[in-house]
Design brief:
With 158 residues, the chain is of the alpha/beta class. The chain is built from 4 helices and 7 strands.
Length: 158
């Protein structure tokens, strides 16, 4: 077949077709710091988009545009959850320490999906571990994906 009858895609078509980032089906609960992070992302992406557009960089413009759409949607759906004032049961935004059956202790804060970073001790409220301890009190034993764990400390965020 002759190349004359084959439509070639130019780079502009490829970059304009970047699929949107998937949006979680869960409520977009956020802490105060999580909301600040979303707003920071939006500001940085607006700047990046402007620079990419000015430089006629189609790839960077498409990526910044896609990411900006994601963060603007996340900002629009954000539900700010004010920090709890008491620590009788585990709630969104609280810091929790658990002790596993092997004696290992872990401390983490329950946060929104976009703020989650397990390596930094920030656990998404929709994670299996968080869902198993939300609403539970000090001393309660809960089933986790890695076996049972006991809640040994619940504190409100600083």
């Amino acid at each position: 077949m002759s190349r004359a009858f084959v439509k070639e895609h130019d780079e502009a078509d490829t970059f304009q077709d970047l699929a949107d980032r998937p949006i979680s089906p869960f409520r977009n609960l956020v802490t105060t710091s999580g909301l600040r992070q979303i707003e920071t992302q939006i500001a940085e992406l607006r700047t990046a988009y402007g620079k990419a557009a000015a430089a006629l960089d189609k790839a960077a413009t498409a990526k910044a545009s896609r990411d900006l759409r994601y963060w603007v949607a996340r900002r629009a759906s954000a539900e700010l959850i004010e920090p709890a004032t008491n620590s009788d049961v585990v709630r969104f935004g609280m810091r929790v320490t658990i002790e596993r059956q092997n004696g290992q202790r872990q401390t983490f804060r329950i946060v929104g999906e976009d703020e989650a970073d397990p390596k930094r001790g920030l656990l998404s409220y929709v994670s299996p571990l968080a869902r198993s301890i939300l609403g539970k009190g000090n001393g309660e034993v809960v089933a986790t994906p890695q076996g049972e764990a006991k809640i040994i400390k619940i504190t409100t965020p600083e």
